[in-house]
Amino acid sequence: MPVRDAASYLPACIKSIERQSLADFETIIVDDGSTDNTAALLDEWSRRDKRVKVARTPRRGIVEALNTGLEMCAVPLVARMDGDDVMHADRLRSQCAAFARKPELCVVASRVRPLATEPLRAGMREYLAWQNQLLSPEAIAADLFWEAPLTHPSAAFRRDDVMAVGAYRDGPFPEDYELWLRLHAAGRQFGKLAATLLAWRVHAQSLSHTDGRYARASFDATRLEYLARYLRHTAPGKDVVVWGAGRRTRRRLGALFTQRINIVACIDIDPRKIG
After folding, report:
1. To the nearest 5 percent, what fractions of the chain are helix, strand and coil?
2. pTM value?
């Protein structure tokens, strides 16, 4: 769990971790240069719970914090968490059981519900409804290039698989979505539990709202890069037809031409354009 200046949310997060029905786990926390009361809260927690290990670093960003935490993990399964979210009491037990049932899975996430003080924007409501209905490995893989199909702090994964593809990468892209795309390119499978096991806090100060790496253009560039790799691998030298391309989408598709993907037609069913 990477944290920075999360003191106002940490008590609820900590309580949700302490009440887990699976007791045999350790909590690795990387405090990425907090300046509020976060450090004091973490110190108190680690004093009363020997399963809690805290690392303090200067402000280096979420990717460095995530990779520092991964290096500290000494067990094969890692569950991601954020300091402003709340997990269900059966989250860890349920995800461990899913890995035992399906050893072919690399990542197991869960459905999530929003934790917000203000009404959600329409786009966020649509995103949550969309990703909450993607449960099977097949459904997740089929929609992977549409949007990030897993909510990062709801995910648990096999540490060795993630380390084998290079852990988290830093760059002008969303680090979680880029990791999912990289794992998919390496042939790994994803699953999602039908239970809602995470309350995902949505607020204006979160990185997804304030950091350019999570802007639409960053998602577009990342997905197009991996989509081009996928097409070159699965259909080398083949012509590509794009179905349902409006003007905005056609502009985005220009990047595929630079990736040596030969788009020969765009199909559009707008009655004004037929003929």
Report:
1. 45, 20, 35
2. 0.91
Please check the confidence at residue 75 and state whether its pLDDT lies above 80: yes
161-180 residue pLDDT tens = 999 999 999 999 999 999 99
In the chain, the amino acid numbered 84 is D
Per-residue three-class SS string for 156-218: EEEHHHHHHCCCCCCCCCCHHHHHHHHHHHCCCEEEEEEEEEEEEECCCCCHHHHCHHHCHHH
Condensed to tens digits (0 to 9), the pLDDT of residues 237-274 reads: 889 888 876 777 777 777 777 888 888 888 877 888 77
**Which residue matches tokens 């949505």?**
202
Within 8 A by CB and 6+ apart from 74, the residues are: 26
Beta carbons within 10 angstroms of residue 241's beta carbon: 11
Nearest CA to 251 out of 274, 221, 227, 229 is that of: 221
E strands of 50-155, at which residues? 52-57, 77-79, 86-87, 105-115
| Average pLDDT of the segment spanning 32-50 | 97
Six-digit token pair at 82? 């954020």
Q: ∠ CA(81), CA(82), CA(84), 5° rounding?
A: 135
- Type of residue numbered 4: R
Q: Tell which wins on pLDDT, 201 or 118.
A: 201
